[in-house]
Amino acid sequence: MLSERGHEASALNVHDQLESFTLEEYDSVVVGASIHVGKHQGEVRDFVTDNQDALSEMPTAFFQVSLSSANEEKREEAAGYVESFLTETEWHPDRIGQFGGALRFSEYGFLKRLMMKRIANDLLTEERKPTGDLEFTDWDAVDAFAADVAAFVEDRLGVVPDTTEDPAA
Question: How confident is the model at residue 135, as a pLDDT?
């Protein structure tokens, strides 16, 4: 989405970042985390806490991926995970998104596959019991969130998106 609007964008895994990593070269940051057994990844929490000063000085967004977000009856639970994360980290992102995730049974080992099938059985109706990988992500909602974040950042930084086509492309 950002690249399509003429911006340079990087996707980084906080698990792979060195302790010497800084956010100084970035104009904006979008942090994403998934929920596993009711918690966000510790590395993501540490990243936000360790970079609190830099994050407070720039436009930011946070998105959470959780199976609970895909289930109408569990959305409030998913929102509680976001609230807990933001309270723990004392972070106040400008934009927040919540999205359903996916169950990639084909990528899980035996025990994780068994555990995730049990979770899926609690979330799914009888006619939709897991027989293979399942996708719960509303990609239109993801695109809308990305467009909203991009427009917010452009407005905040006073940047006009470059939507001209590259003649060499």
Answer: 81
